[in-house]
Design a protein that fits this description.
One of its GO terms (molecular function) is transferase activity. Keywords: Transferase. It comes from Dyadobacter frigoris. InterPro entries: ATPase_NBD, Gcp-like_dom, T6A_TsaB. This is tRNA (Adenosine(37)-N6)-threonylcarbamoyltransferase complex dimerization subunit type 1 TsaB. This protein is 31% helix and 28% strand. The longest helix is centred in the middle third of the chain and has 18 residues. The strands form 2 sheets. A 5-stranded mixed beta sheet has the order 3-2-1-4-5, with helices on both faces. Strands 8-7-6-9-10 form a 5-stranded mixed beta sheet, sandwiched between helices. Helix 1 runs parallel beside helix 2 and helix 3 packs across helix 6. By secondary structure, the chain is α/β, with parallel strands linked by helices. It is built from 6 helices and 10 strands, in the order E-E-E-H-E-H-E-H-E-E-E-H-E-H-E-H. The protein has 2 domains: 109 residues, Nucleotidyltransferase, domain 5, CATH 3.30.420.40; 85 residues, Nucleotidyltransferase, domain 5 (2-Layer Sandwich).
């Protein structure tokens, strides 16, 4: 099994290569517009430096979102293009679930894990999982308030993380059941690939023709500036 995984959910991009459940290579680049400018270069470098060719891949795994509209569009378009060209299946993984996999192994079974991606202002994309990555709260856009996540915080210890967690820390940090990670947790192709392995073994593939990123919200283009008429 040789799986190429791609994540462009937020600022930057990452690419990883797994072979028979083992990680061979992992490249991450977190600079502005790196997904559009460097993604194909990272993909070719990851595969070639590992001693393989693109034709050797068994499947392509993509982080489907939620996240940046532009980033997701670039990542999914690239993944679908590879699958078309190579005649390989496409696997899609929820970005927030892959983030939870980065954190859950470091806590005991009695914790819940809330992955958060910044969605501007006081809004975040969030989902809550248990230690087995079962969904406790489905993925949704949340406008953060003091009573957000009140129900699960009443009786559960919850770890909040991701670039959206900084917004809720002032609201929840006095709650003894709310925990925050000082280390920045970013979406990563590494854990996207780990979940992709399980999906590949179960034969869970996407329809390449109809598959679309999980945008969660409609794209809102910024207003255009009207040109100042010449005098």
């Amino acid at each position: 099994m040789l799986l190429l995984s791609i994540d462009t959910s937020t600022r930057g991009c990452s690419v990883s290569l797994h072979h028979d459940a083992g990680l061979l290579a992992d490249y991450e680049l977190y600079t502005d517009r790196s997904s559009s400018a460097m993604l194909t270069t990272l993909i070719s470098s990851t595969v070639e430096h590992s001693g393989f060719k693109l034709q050797d891949l068994d499947a392509v795994v993509i982080a489907k979102g939620p996240g940046s509209y532009t980033g997701l569009r670039v990542g999914v378009s690239t993944a679908k293009g590879l699958c078309y060209a190579l005649d390989k299946p496409l696997i899609a993984i929820n970005t927030l679930e892959a983030m939870a996999l980065q954190v859950s192994p470091f806590f005991s079974k009695d914790f819940l894990f809330c992955s958060m991606i910044d969605a501007r202002r006081m809004e975040v994309y969030a989902s809550v999982f248990n230690s087995d990555l079962d969904i406790i709260e489905p993925t949704k856009a949340v406008i953060l308030q003091e009573d957000s996540f009140e129900n699960i915080l009443k009786s559960n210890k919850v770890v909040f993380f991701g670039d959206g967690a900084a917004k809720c820390k002032p609201l929840f940090e006095q709650n003894p059941n709310a925990f925050f990670i000082s280390t920045e947790i970013r979406p990563s192709a590494k854990t996207v690939g780990m979940l992709g392995i399980k999906a590949f073994e179960k034969g869970v593939f996407e329809d390449i023709v109809t598959f679309e990123p999980y945008y969660l919200k409609d794209f809102m283009a910024p207003p255009t500036r009207k040109a100042t008429p010449a005098v």
